[in-house]
Amino acid sequence: MGNLFNNYEEACAIILFGIGFTTLLLHRNMIKKIIGFSMMDSAIYLFLAAKGYIAGRKAPIVVSVSVTALMLALTVRLYRRYHTLDIDEITMQARREEA
Amino acid sequence: MQLWQNLPFAMILLPLASASLTSILKGKAARRAALTVITLVTLMAAALVIFMQGYGQSYTFMMGHFPAPWGNEIRAGMLEAVTALCFALVMLFSVMGGLRDIEHDILPDRQNLYFVMCELTTAALMAQVFTNDVFTGYVFLEIMTIAACALISARTKGRTLVAATRYMIMNLVGSGLFLLGLTLLYDLTGHLLMSNIQEKIIALSATGKYQQPLTMVIALVTIGLGIKSALFPFHTWVPDAYSSSTPTSSAILSSLISKGYIFLLIKFYYRVFGLREVVNAQVEDVLLVFGAAGAVIGSVLAIRQLDIRRMIAYSSVAQIGYIYMAIGLGTQSGMTAALFQLMAHAICKSLLFIATGGLCAASGEKRGFTSLRGAAYRNPVAGAAFVVGAFSMIGIPFLSGFVVKLAYAEAAVLWGGPRMITVLAVLAISTMLNAIYFGRTVVTLFRLSEEKIAQQQKWHSGPCFAVACAALSLLTFALGLAADPVLAAIRSGLEMFS
Amino acid sequence: MILIALTLLVPLLGGLLLPLLRFQSRKARAWYVEAVTLLTSALAAVLCFTHPTEELHIIRIMTPFELVLRVDGLSRVFTGLIAFLWPLATLYAFEYMAHENRENAFFAYYTLSYAATLGISMAANLFSLYVFYECLTLATLPLVSHKRDVKSIHAGRRYLFYSLSGAALAFVGVMVLSRYGAGMDFVLGGSLNGLASRHLTLLRVVFVLSFVGFSVKAAMFPLYAWLPMASVAPTPVTALLHAVAVVNAGAYACMRLVYYCYGSDFLRGTWAQAIVLCLAAFTIVFGSAMAVREQHFKRRLAYSTVSNLSYILLGVTLMTPAGMTGAMTHMVSHGLMKITLFYCAGAVLVKTGQEYVQDLRGFGKVMPFTFAVFTLASLALIGVPPLSGFLSKWNLLTAAAETGAWYGTVGIAALIISAILTAIYLMSVVISAYFRPLNPELASLGEANHDPTWRMKVPFVVICCAIVAMGLNGASVTEWLSGIAKGLI
Lengths: 99, 498, 489
Fold this sequence. Notes:
The structure holds 3 protein chains of 3 kinds.
Chain A: H1 2-6, H2 8-26, H3 30-50, H4 59-82, H5 87-98
Chain B: H1 7-22, H2 27-55, E1 59-63, E2 72-76, H3 78-97, H4 99-105, H5 111-130, H6 134-153, H7 160-189, H8 194-207, H9 211-228, H10 238-244, H11 247-273, H12 275-280, H13 283-303, H14 308-327, H15 332-362, H16 375-378, H17 380-394, H18 400-415, H19 417-445, H20 450-455, H21 463-481, H22 483-497
Helix pairs in contact in B: 1-2, 1-5, 2-3, 2-5, 3-5, 3-11, 3-15, 3-21, 3-22, 5-6, 5-11, 6-7, 6-11, 7-9, 7-10, 8-11, 9-11, 10-11, 10-14, 11-14, 11-15, 13-14, 13-19, 14-15, 14-19, 15-17, 15-18, 15-21, 15-22, 17-19, 17-21, 18-19, 18-21
Chain C: H1 2-21, H2 26-50, E1 56-62, E2 65-69, H3 73-96, H4 103-122, H5 126-144, H6 150-180, H7 200-214, H8 226-229, H9 235-262, H10 264-267, H11 271-293, H12 297-318, H13 321-352, H14 363-366, H15 368-382, H16 388-403, H17 406-435, H18 454-472, H19 474-485
Antiparallel strand pairs in C: 1-2
Helix pairs in contact in C: 1-2, 1-4, 2-3, 2-4, 3-4, 3-9, 3-13, 3-18, 4-5, 4-9, 5-6, 5-9, 6-7, 7-9, 7-11, 9-12, 9-13, 11-12, 11-17, 12-13, 12-16, 12-17, 13-15, 13-16, 13-18, 13-19, 15-17, 15-18, 16-17, 16-18
């Protein structure tokens, strides 16, 4: 328990990662999924910052921003076509469309 | 430092640079540019293989000559060269074979962007093959994911949008876990270059401390890449993504992108953790079990499909399971078998997807088995190519799939014990299941009453399609007839690896 | 070495070139195909008589798996049998196939199957045998579903699935033997290495699996169902491939597996032998019983094949030199007898269109020549002396009795029961053909002789002579074959 408090940044980062991860995986709403993903990524940067990030590289953050943008763009296209943000509902509609 | 040693660097940079140029070109010109660049990359890979044979050892190449940890390192050996050649060839023929479908499926003003994505994927693949830096690996992994998403959603018809979204979500989960693993790894060792990390890990494991975090890191990297490469049971996004996109995209996704992740995983096992650490962590056993389960269940699911593209997609799930099963043996011969299967399957699966594209086009863009009856008479080139691919998947002698079976069984009997029984049982069962669904499909393609054969309207998919089909079929035969050089190259590459 | 290469290359190239030559007339194609098969058979005959000892290394697929051909004693028996029957079958096929379409494709695959069968018979190691075994499956698949109607498509699918699954099981055996065998080559008496004694259970399990796998082609219970279904194929195919080449290839592979890989000493008296022997004995009785029940003429003969192939497998599973002699004798004599029976069925079908047994009443007058031949072959198959069937059954019976073990008794019982059933299902056809009047609706057939032309009659006469000759020279045939079984030849 003492260790946990000593390394509170890491503990906090892991908890945040967990929250983001479950949101991304389990939530049905697309926007909330994207928020989950952003949380997950931020948690990792927190972790790196806590450990003293020396390599001086910015690339992961760039990746994260572009992925978020891509996901949002996909969401917009999905919403225009299916008029909902619920991924299960969208899948159902797509299946019906094909049949 | 010799001039040819710049080749890997050029193989990454050329498609990357050309991708930005291609984005301002028009459709036709973009197509020409992409094909030229990919051909060049293929030639460079072939040249690298030849030079490598003479050189006989691996080398590292520092971009801009900055030493670590500021510079970015590339490392090339025999295995990297052969894999790069295989990937480049498959890329080239996948794009060539699907040109007609690309024109048909994708809006004219977006076509140049499609070729940009092909070039980006090539660059990302080459980077993953050659990189010696774990974070560069991660960055290009994400670039590949984004490009893949674009490749899926490029076709506007059908459920590509949903497929792309589901693909993205699963892949983000995988990337997240992978990145977390990398972060922990960095935390443990303080390095980002693969060789430095490995030194540190060897020192760490000698002290006996940090065993649990290390196991955790190995597990995270494995699961992350496993999800991204559609290891059973994380395969749920596969059928939609592979079956609804345009044939070239399906071919690239199933035979290159998922293989890129697996190659990166093998690289991590050898160059970062060291095979012994991985075996100690007992990750191998888990991979063996999940791989074996995937190989069987993927095939069972494939039998139930009524849509030929979905069937092939599920067959991919089975084959990915196969690769993981061989990795799970945790021996040098198992790894050799896995890498051979990686290449053989890359060639064979893209052949199948391309051929299926031609068969469906000749049957009025329908994919149901009833519509495909006699399709081999309407499009003989595609029919012949499909037969080659399907027989290779079943493992008929003289085709690459047969050598895969041989290599697997040999690796298994060398090991003995329960692992041998598992692998041999999976081989036998999966051959039977493959015989059911690929055998059925082949018979269906030729199923036509005699009077109707002459009446069938011939469909021509163009010379590019024929060249791609012929080349991929020839490669399948070549790997099946003369596998020894390739296997020897893989073995020597694995020795240079560690 | 060149001779072996030529024997394989002539039918291979002959088959591959056939579609490219674009024959305009049926006659030209007939001459071409007959020339190719005759040339191959001549080469094979030379091989059988000279039996050169050198090996032909074709290709190394992956170290140490290499395709090697060689002619040893057992190959001489099988090669001789197919080399004798194939040209005759081709001759018969010309007349029969006149009422079928796409003869180009048919004869191309027909010739390729010849190459594949020769490959099986000359394979020098289990790996090569396995490879050619797979090739045979693929070459014969288009022949089975040649007609392209629903029935033949189903039969083809069933055949493909059964054969490939059997091969998958056999593959496991090949690979395990590559580890526990001393080298890959066939050695009479077995070639297991020192490691084997520590993995007895594993090797026995694998033996049973690979035996069952190879015996799929020999239609052993429980994987026999494809054979009766495949009787929808054109008669030359059912006759040659499903009474001679394909099914015998399965039995031949089992023979190689038992006597040349594991070795009879390793297996004799174990539970592994008990399992395979009981399966074979059961199939003998089961096949005959099904044949009695079946009213479709060709399917009845197909069930008879199921039963008779297990005679061979029974001989194989006795695991004594005498058993192997019996198996080889029956392989040859059954090949001769069954091809004749199928040809009669085919002649009836092509000349009068009748397929069911009850429609053949009184046909002794409609097709006197055909039914005379049919009667002779039937008597032979039942085992009436001095015909060849008597010889082979006698050899099997004495081999079973010699073992003196319980499984010998099982074998004898199966053989006797099956002999009675064979008499029932064949003589019922013969008796009703001669002693019952024609069915009223077929009365018009009785007005003329419907026997086929010389192209079909020549094979009949030649094979009948062979049946009689083999029966009359029983002692010397047995002596020669037992020499092979003991490794003297």
